[in-house]
Amino acid sequence: MNNGYILLITFAVTILFAGIVYYLSRLQKQRHQETFKNDWNRFEKALQLNDLKGINHYGTLLVRNVHLKSDDLNVIKKEVDPLAEKYSELEELRLLIFNKRLDWDVQIPY
Question: With 0-12 CB in 10 A as exposed, 13-18 as middle and 19+ as buried, what is 87?
Answer without folding.
Answer: middle
